[in-house]
Structures are given as structure tokens and as C-alpha cells.
Amino acid sequence: MAKKAARAPKRSATPARRAARPSTPARKAAPRKATAPLRKSAARATTTAKAAKYVYSWGAGKADGNGTMKPLLGGKGANLAEMGRIGLPVPAGFTISTEVCTYYYDNKRTYPAALQAQIAAGIGKIEKIMGVTFGDATRFPLLVAVRSGARDSMPGMMDTILNLGLNDETVIALERATQNPRFAWDCYRRFIQMYGDVVLGVQKRAGEDHEPFETVLETYKDETYGNGHLEDNKLTADDLKTIIDRFKALVKERTGKAFPSDPWQQLEGAVSAVFGSWMNDRAIVYRRKYNIPAEWGTAVNVQAMVFGNTGDESGSGVAFTRDPATGEKVFYGEFLLNAQGEDVVAGVRTPEAVAELAKQMPKAYKELDRIRKVLETHFKDMQDFEFTIQDGTVYMLQTRNGKRTGVAAVRIATEMVKEGLIDWKTAVMRVPADQLDQVLAPIFDRVAVKKANVIARGLPAGPGAASGEIYFNADRAVEAAAKDKKVLLVRVETSPEDLRGMIAAEGILTARGGVSSHAALVARQMGKVCVCGAAALHVDYNKRTLTVDGTVYNEGDWLSIDGTAGEVYAGRIETGASEVIQGLVENDAEAKKGRTFKNFVQLMKWCAEGTRMTVRTNADTPEQVRNALAFGAVGIGLTRTEHMFFEGDRIDAMREMILAESLEARQEALAKLLPYQREDFFGIFKELKGYPATIRFLDPPLHEFLPNSGDQQKDLAKKLGIPVEKIQQRVHDLHEFNPMLGFRGCRLGIRYPEITAMQARAVFEAAADANKKGYKAKPEIMIPLVGFKKELDLQVEVVHEVARKVQAERKTTINYSVGTMIEVPRGALTADEIAQTAEFFSFGTNDLTQTTLGMSRDDSGSFLPPYEELEIVKKNPFATIDQTGVGALMRIAVEKGRQTRKDIKLGICGEHGGEPDSVKFCDAIGLDYVSCSPFRVPVARLAAAQAALAAKKK
Ligand code: ADP
Ligand code: MG
Ligand code: MG
């Protein structure tokens, strides 16, 4: 294998061609000038023993570096070395390490003194292995590719330059050696174009529609062959010569200098351009966005060229060792005959599927398939690789771990365990937790969606796909759904009053609102498909129309939304529930036979084995509990009791309670609510099958329950038999300047203990009922918004009092506990005091974030986007925990809570509980569980297991 390292095209070696070789001394390279910074000293000296090592060579089955050296050699360089080391056919080359990049920027863009000699030695090694010489104007010359390579591939970095080393003399040598003029001049044409563009900066100027080199090329084609499409590979050698002359003229005109003909000068220019590109604007912006430190630097790879453009026995392609969309273990990829690498991605011609190679070049295909297996056995992950076939011989140019969809990630991880390639712990670590919900999402038919037309974009708020007739209000949506219609609820924004419509709909589409808007929150909780904040939509409730770009859609028209991508399509696209949901939640026998289902279940089993924390769910209804348990939740971490008050005529009793003017009147109204609450809790205890339920007592400001519009207020007045003015007065009284910091949370129960008493009674009576039926209720009563121990004490007293009564009345004992949410800074800071009363803490990180940052989540749309752009906040703190700020308070509360009560139970119930980074943080600070919406449970379980496995490894 070693000997098979890339060679110049076979044709050059035939005796006939050799005979044609002129008698000029073979080793005479093109003249060199000592101007560029890389060549201060005499060229091509060998490395002095003491100098630091900057250049790492590979070739002929050996390599200085290996795959573990990504920080030093970059991702591309490390893996090229690794492939070379294990005997894969990689053209010889070397990597200039990232240390040189660092030196370059630390030293005013100059190079270490020893570098130049090391580069010369590196070229010397390639020459020896390949049997050709850089700058040789007499025989087949060594040509190289100069390729950038940071640790991870990074947009913004310099594009690869191919065929470097060509000039007016070496191109003739190449032509003569190969007897393939079109090939030789095609290489030269490509080289001048790439080098002119990326190194010399001959690029599109303001006002120009096309790249200047492309314009020259197209103009020539039109002049010579008429207007019409002509593929580049149809150009003759003579065409190419003329184009090259024009290219050179263009370079002269734009840069004021001739195109550099000295190969060494070309090489220096290219190397400097790579290092220079590390600090270009695009690269800086990208690094900032993905938090990549500038100190990492990029490496430069210089590698012998192999040629995919010598004819129809050659080609270039990219491939995956498995299908990156489905994860299926098939050879997947595409290639172009008679082409150099960049043609495949550039879309110059339409590539063919790699399977076609089996017919066109069976030997090369067999070799590639062999390599595909070697790559997987060696790297133990799905690989994304680049190859070139030169005259029937396969060469490897790159490999890396391939990006994949969530569905593919699950399949590949589980199947690789079965194949014995990786162990189950590695499999768990391999699936990106935030991609797991793709496996749960309803899906569009793949073929159909390709033909569909995107009319608007918004935030991908609820993953999955949904198609339906559009309805603009909840009632009509429910009505239509009752007639078995598929419905999309379209609103400017949603509010709790739309809930019924949202439940009835296949998907939710809003014109306003962000990822934490009501629509998005509900969508996540219910696992609904949702696109929100699609600003291009103009909804007219009166006319019942939706206008996008001048096109009008009426109620009942079909639209489709993709909540994974945030796209809105015109018309209907076929969808279906994911196999996993059909199998787990709907208990569908057919779905359970499915591969995705089985893989998912297997993965979740491993998660259970690897995790330390458990996962609970935020749920208000028995159905949500059922779903969450099916996904492996082990209890409820948050039941929001107020959600229960919106249904049916409960809201009337609730409003009556709020409007009551005396304790008696209030108690009368509360008595009406009691049976509803009891029934709800019973349903939940029953569904929980003995798992615990954390029940939060009334939390939101009361005005949220009162009607705002005059009409609704009149309706209510009529219903309750009171004057409408009284309602208006109460709405007025309850108005607050800062509702978030106002009369809410335990403050409600402190002022109206009878509300707390009613809720406690409902919980305990339901628990007694459940126990009697054998369901073993475990209520954990949670008092919200506590900042003072005394607040909790007062509320807990009410709870215990009711508990005593109910237990005596029912002659039973109830297994309950009381605790609090930690959601205001004072609560966290005095957690040692609060833990004297609280048996558990649950971090309410939504409010804790609002109160710690002093930012209202619901108003954050106006200031957070620029905050993220300017990196004042690294990520949206309402989506992922602000670990340094909010996280510090959480750590304090954990520590102080445990000081007072060693076995205090600790959890989190904010929206963050289903976000992978936050879950990992919760594991790090030692919480016992996280709680999240039912459809996030698998994501949280995976993140929790990954956190625990990573911690164990350390
Ligand atoms: P990127 O990081 O953008 O993928 P690469 O450095 O991998 O850039 O180069 C892009 C393409 O150029 C490769 O896919 C390959 O087809 C071609 N290429 C790179 N190096 C060589 C080489 N030594 N010989 C022939 N083609 C090459
Ligand atoms: Mg590449
Ligand atoms: Mg709260």
C-alpha cells in the first residue's frame, strides 16, 4: 500500500513519452527570488536538529503526525496523517502546524526562522516519494494543493488552491509528459482562476454581477460557441490557452502585477493567504458565533496533486460511509467523471450517485467500498470523505466524522454497537441530545416536500411537519376538527383562550412571538408542530384572510408548516406521526416493529443505565402524564394548577372568586372550584401509578383570569348577575405596573389563605380517593415565589392544617411533603433558612432568570436579539441557563439547602429542564432530577445520561 502513494499520471512514465523528453537538466527548478518573508535564508536546507518542529510530513505509509493531533495539525491534517499511517492511498504531503499561525499573529505577521527550511524539506520528501520535482519544466512537474485546515472545518477560511506549481514552462512540461493538452491547460486555467481569486484578491467588485474570472470565461464561450450552455470540460486546449491569456491580463489589470510564475513564490503566497484568512471578517464572525478561540489558529496542508480531470477514467467525489439522512448502512455519495474536486460542490455539472461508479468503474468502486469499511473500522464512526480517481486509481483526500440528522444519529449509534464497533456508552454520547426530538416529530413525505413552495419563514418552535386547512380562531378550528378536518390554527399571537383550538389543530402558525411565546411553550408541552413569528404573514381576523407577498389565503385553504426548519408552505403535503410516538404512546403494534422505534427504545435503555439524575415531566393533564411516562418520566416535577382553571365553566367560578368582596363570598366560589381540582388531581394520581407529583399552588397574577374586552366583561356580568361596572372596577384595581413582580406567587396565598386551603384540600382528598383505589398518591406541595422563610412557614401551616383534617376525616395517612420553588434571588441566598421548612427545592429557572437578570422574558423580544448579536449574552438566557449568573445562585442554594437538610430533594422545573446544556449543568451541581414538558423527556434523559457518563470518565 505504501508504494501505492500517489504518482504522476501513468502516461508520463511510458518509454515513448520518456523518449520525447528534452535534454534539459531534470532537477532544474524554476528560478527563485528571495523576496517573500518565507525565504529569507538559502532555500531547501534541511531542518536543523534544534529548531522546533513546524512541518509534519506524511507519505509512503508513514506519517509524523496522527489523528489525535487535531489541535496541532488541524482536523484535515491530522486525519490525512492518520490515513497515511494506516496505509490508505493518500497523496504525500505535509502540514504546517497551527503553532505557526499563532507565531504569525504574535510576531507581526512574520514566520519562525526555521520554517522555510522545513517547508523546503517537506517538498523534498514529496518529490522523493512521487518521483517528480517542484517547478520542473522538463518532465512531469510536482504540482501541489494548498489547503487550509482548522480543528473543525470553518467557513470563512481560504478556499483550497489546486495545481499550484504551474507556469508557462511547467504547463508545457505537463502537456508533453501526459500527451494530454486539454488536461494540462485545464489545470493551468483552474490554477490561475483559484489563485487569482483567493490569493491575489481578484474578486467581484461592487456593481459586478459575476466573479470577474467567470465573466471572462463565459464571454469567451459565448464568442466562440454562441450563447448557450457549454460545459467547461468541452473546451479545447486552444480555447483554454486563449482564456488563460485573458485571465493573466485580468490579473495585471486588477492587481497591477503579473501573475507570479515562480512556483516557490506561488507557494509562499498561498501559505500566507491561508494564515491571513484566519483573521478575515468572515472567519472572525464565525468563531465568535461558535465560541472558537482565536488562539487555536489554522494549519496549512500542502499535498501532491492527483488528477481527476485526465479523462473518463478519472473523477472526483465526496461520500459518506452511511446515509447521513437515514443512517442506513449503505455507500452514499456522489462523483463527477473527468473533474477536479471543486467541481462537485460548485455544481458546475450535476454529479452522479456513487452507486453508478459500480457500473462505470467497477474496480475503482470496489476499492472505494473497501476503503469505506477500513475507515469505519478504524475511526469507529460514520465518515464523510473526499476522493479522487486518477486513471482508475483511487486516492483519499480527506475524512472526518460525518454530520447527520437526529434520525440517522440514533440509527448509526445503535447499529454500531450491534456491529461491535463501539460500546453502549459511546453510543449514548454520539447522539446530539438536541437532535433527538427529530425522531419524535411528525414527518413530511420527502418527495412531496421537494416539490412544495416555501411562502414564509419563522422560528422553528415545535419540531415536526403539519398540513391542514387554516383557521383564524379557536372555536372555528375546533369546529372544523370535529368534522374530521385537518386544521392549522393561524393567529397573530396565541393566548390561553386559544388553547382548545391549539389542541384541535395539527399545527400552530403565528405571525408574532418568539421561542418562549405562549404558542411555542404550548407547542412544546403538547408536542405540537409550530412555526411562530413568521413576520411576512398578514392576518386579518375580520376578513378571515392571510396575505403573504400579495397572495391571499382564505379560511379553509391548505397550508403546511415545518416546525423543524421554521418554514411555511403553500398547499397540502402528506404527513404522519413518528414511529416512536405511534409505538410508545399509541401502543401501535406495527410501529413497534419499526427500526426507528427499536433503536430509540434501545438508546433509552442505555440512558437509564448511564444516568445519575432522573427525569420528571411538567404536566397538567392525565394525557400529558401518560405521554411523559411512556417516554420514561418518573413523576411530575411541575403541575401548574392555574392551567386547570381555564377549561369550561371553571373559569367562571374562578372569576367569581376573584370578584368576591368578602371572605364568605370567596369561600363560596372556592367551594365550586374544589371538586374540579380534586377531580383533576385524582386523574393525575391515577395516571402516575405511584410516582410523585409536585403540585404548585396558584401562581399567576389574578388579572390574568379576568376578561379584558368590553363584550366579554358584559357577558360575565350577565352570567354572574352583577353590574359590569363592578367587573371593570376590579380589573382596574388589579392592574399592576409590574405584574411579574406584583401580586402573585405565594403572595396570593398569604393574603388569601383560603385559596391555599382549598387547593390543599383538593390535593389531599384526591390523594385519599386515589389511595383507596390503590393508586398510591405521592403529592409534593410546592409554594411558589418564596423569598422569606416566613412566607413558606405561613403557607405550610395552612397545608398541614388541612392535611390533618382530611386525614382525620378520611381516616387515612397521606404520603406528602411540602417544599418550595427557588425562583427569586433572596430565596436562593437564604436557602439555609428556607430549608428548615422546605423538604424539597425546585428551581423555577424562568422566574429566577427574570429576577436575577432583571429582564422580563415576555418583553425580551425588543432587546435580547441585539444582546445576542453583540454577545453581551452568549445564548438566550431564557432558553439555556445563564450558568455564571443564575447558575451561581443555584449553586449557593444547593449548598445552603444541603447544609440545613442533608437529604433535601433538588430539582428543576423551569423550561430549561429540557434543554441539553442546562440539563448537563444541573447534573454538575448535583440536582436529583430535571423536569420538562412530556415530549422533551427523551431529550432530557439523553442529556442527563451524557452528563453522568462524561462525569464518570473524568
Ligand atoms: P474543503 O475544506 O473546502 O473541503 P479541501 O482542502 O478539502 O477543501 O479541498 C477541496 C477539494 O479539492 C477536495 O475535495 C478535492 O477534491 C480537491 N483537492 C484537495 N486536495 C487535492 C489534491 N491533493 N489532489 C487533488 N485534488 C485535491
Ligand atoms: Mg474537503
Ligand atoms: Mg415562577
TrEMBL record:
Cofactor (UniProt): Mg(2+)
Domain Pyruvate phosphate dikinase AMP/ATP-binding: 114-354, 365-419
Domain (PEP-utilising enzyme C-terminal): residue spans on this chain: 598-947
InterPro entries for this protein: ATP_grasp_subdomain_1, PEP-util_enz_mobile_dom, PEP_util_AS, PEP_util_C, PEP_util_CS, Phosphohistidine_dom_sf, PPDK_AMP/ATP-bd, Pyruvate_phosphate_dikinase
Domain PEP-utilising enzyme mobile: 485-566
Residue positions binding Mg(2+): 823, 847
PROSITE patterns to which the protein is assigned, alphabetical: PEP_ENZYMES_2 (PS00742), PEP_ENZYMES_PHOS_SITE (PS00370)
Enzyme Commission number, as recorded: 2.7.9.1
Binding residue positions for substrate: 640, 696, 823, 844-847
Biased segments, Low complexity type: 11-44
Region (Disordered): 1-44
Catalytic activity, as annotated: pyruvate + phosphate + ATP = phosphoenolpyruvate + AMP + diphosphate + H(+)
Residue positions of the active site: 518 (tele-phosphohistidine intermediate), 909 (proton donor)
Any one GO MF annotation of this record: metal ion binding
UniProt keyword list: ATP-binding, Kinase, Magnesium, Metal-binding, Nucleotide-binding, Pyruvate, Transferase
Family the entry assigns: Belongs to the PEP-utilizing enzyme family.
Function comment: Catalyzes the reversible phosphorylation of pyruvate and phosphate.
NCBIfam families listed in its UniProt record: PRK05878.1, pyru_phos_dikin
Name assigned to this protein: Pyruvate, phosphate dikinase
Organism: Luteitalea pratensis
